[in-house]
Amino acid sequence: MEKSNQEQISLTDPDSRSVILHKNIIHVGYNVQASSDAKHKLLVEYDTGDVNDSHALASMAIETKKLLGKESMNVLADKGYHIGEQLEECERNEITTYVSPKAPSTKDIGLYSISCFEYNKEYDHYICPQGEILRTNGRWYQHSNTPKNGKGGYRFKRYNSPECKTCSSSHLCTQSQKNVRNIDRSQYADSIEANARRVENNPEYYRQRQQIAEHPFGTLKRQRGFTHTLVRGKEKVMGEVGLMFIGYNLSRCVTILGMKELVNRLINSLLLFLKAKKLPILSPYKNLIFFELKYAM
User: Fold this and answer.
1) I need a labelling partner for 155 at 20 to 30 A (CA). Which of 79, 256, 278, 283 fits?
2) pTM of the full structure
């Protein structure tokens, strides 16, 4: 592990990792990510990477946008994908995020929460509940919990005020021995706040996420029993997942288009492909395709 700079290695399948299914349940396997369109619930892109969801949002969204041929698009995701770096990356690629914000990491012990402090972007300062201004020295600090792989690390600026030491409401604000409240603002704060406003202002729109994202996985897991893969190794696992997703999409297309229209579109696509590749198109070949698809019905 030291030579490979990895935090975990499976002797059964080197490509697999420990995946947290529930709070105290961990399986060794793959965490498959997939994107689905809102209109027809068709699966667009899929992949597997880290053991959790947090760093998959931007790469999945960008690839999905390319496959759909869109210049811009919206993406809905749950709080497992809420990472400032990922939100900002989506923003740079003309992807508008609606990702459920995470709750503050600090425990609620009765003190003023971060939401009680108003940020003024023009002057780059915060205003506390008592009306005092918290300023920064302009220095960027590196988050001390930056992981070894470089993912999840970020820089921040710290804001505070000398008025804290003489404030009569300091007991409502901080338990620091120095009697000073510090507010740390991430380099990704603008993207995080913009995303939070969109979700808050469009609750009905965000609620569509469950209808869109859970539909394909619910069908595959509950109706078709696809709760685990039968092969090992990332390449083979992705092949198996791809076959299951193709099967799902085909069954959805039958529902959406009807069998006859789907068959016609598949044949036309195949003929266009053969023509583009300058391959011979034999008339019996076309009839054979019709026969095979009709037989499969």
Assistant:
1) 79
2) 0.82
